[in-house]
Design goal:
By secondary structure, the chain is α/β, with parallel strands linked by helices. It has 2 domains: 73 residues, Ubiquitin-like (UB roll) (Roll), CATH 3.10.20; 138 residues, Cell division protein FtsQ/DivIB (Rossmann fold, 3-Layer(aba) Sandwich). Helices cover 32% and strands 22% of the residues. It has 6 helices and 12 strands. The chain has a 9-stranded mixed sheet with strand order 6-5-4-7-8-9-10-11-12. Strands 1-3-2 form a 3-stranded mixed sheet, with helices on one face. It is elongated.
């Protein structure tokens, strides 16, 4: 059935009115925002009760450039949110940052911090660094020292991260140790030389574990577990100075 002409005109009129009203709201909101001023900063740190490496005070110092560029009272339209996020991420201590304004004109910062699985021991009076499960390497914290696996050796000294395909084997080993209740308690430190040959230092005993390169990880850890469960109970700790699982199909104890 054909729609009468006046119904078409009415429909067009309603549509035009709604479009004009929408444009009016956008212009009004833009004008309103140009007059609004920031009422302050609200910082939300994800899992804040479980992390102690970064504080809300740290975030505010970084975003305001240590108080030299405060946001309270600043016109919201003049605040570049991307610049805000960049300032925080440049600290190197924050994994993710999202900045936005809430309905009460507060600048809200949603922060996600790194979760360390290992501490890289540096040389030549350079501060230690931390490593997370994704291979990110980030600066040491003055607030808290978590109990995590220690890493020494020349291999990691100049690396910015462990995200490349070249280093995914080493990252896999570190995550395997961290995620296993027995190995995370037993292995206190690993040393990685320039050729990526690994030696492990257990928490108990004066032994050195020769692990070799980070390959065939499950097989090598399986052999090491045999040593702890079957060989060690029959001997004394002092009888072994070196345990090697680097060779296929062998456990060599000296």
């Amino acid at each position: 059935m054909k729609i009468p002409k006046f119904k078409k005109v009415f429909s067009y009129a309603i549509g035009g009115t709604l479009a004009v009203f929408a444009v009016f709201l956008i212009l009004a909101a833009t004008k309103n925002n140009s007059d609004k001023r920031c009422k302050g900063i609200i910082t939300n740190i994800k899992d804040n009760s479980e992390q102690f490496l970064v504080t809300k005070e740290d975030i505010e110092k970084w975003v305001t450039q240590y108080g030299n560029d405060p946001f309270e009272g600043k016109i919201m339209e003049n605040i570049a949110l991307s610049k805000v996020e960049k300032r925080i991420l440049e600290s190197g201590k924050v994994k993710k940052c999202e900045a936005y304004f809430d309905l009460q004109s507060h600048l809200v910062l949603d922060i996600e911090t790194f979760k360390p699985i290992a501490r890289i021991l540096n040389h030549n009076q350079v501060a230690d660094r931390y490593l997370d499960e994704d291979g990110n390497i980030f600066p040491f914290s003055k607030h808290f020292t978590p109990t995590v696996l220690l890493i020494s050796g020349n291999y990691l000294q100049n690396l910015k991260n462990l995200k490349s395909d070249k280093n995914k084997d080493l990252l896999k080993l570190l995550n395997t140790i961290n995620e296993d209740e027995f190995w995370s308690a037993q292995i206190s430190q690993i040393d990685v030389d320039k050729l990526k040959e690994i030696k492990m230092i257990p928490l108990l005993g004066d032994n050195i574990i020769e692990f070799g390169r980070p390959e065939n990880i499950n097989s090598k850890l399986g052999k090491l577990l045999i040593f702890y469960k079957q060989i060690l109970p029959q001997k004394k700790w002092s009888e072994f100075s070196t345990i090697s699982v680097k060779y296929e199909g062998q456990i060599v104890c000296n």
